[in-house]
Amino acid sequence: MKIVVINGHKYYWYSTGRLNMTLFEEITKTLSKNHEVKTTVVEQGYCIDEEVEKYKWADAVIYQSPINWFGVPWALKKYFDEVFAAKIFFAPSEKYGEGGLMGDKRYMFSLTCSAKESDFNDSEGFFDIRSVDDIFISQHKMHQFCGFKKIETFCTYNVVKDPQVERSISRVNFHLNKHLP
Is the pTM of this model over 0.90? Predict the structure, then answer.
């Protein structure tokens, strides 16, 4: 397969992105063993035309990103706004949301989150029995609008208080081997 891995982290003094970069590098290394891989680190800059070509080339796209205020960092949102162009990613259709031109491609979010796993899918949790995918519905719908097919989301929880880096690396590798063998 041809896979693009995108690092969507935005550096802040209180969130330097070490775990995010570690997972990005691990995903790239693991997938490179059996697949062709191209990468983008959004914060290092990008050429819109080159990014469009990467999507055209790819069979799958993986986004490594922290969850910032219940969505992607603004730098990754800006990337989507600039790269996901009409007539390349989507076109007008009879029924809203059915004009996606990326129907032969898949996508996956690999996320880092400061909330604990128990804050999701739990009646006592902060998110009121909502999953990470429920919180990320706008990102999933954006990709569905463009025709992408979803690969199960991966999430590492409680990364501020207890990052468990080695466990996160092991878990993401298991996830990748399961969904992108």
Answer: yes
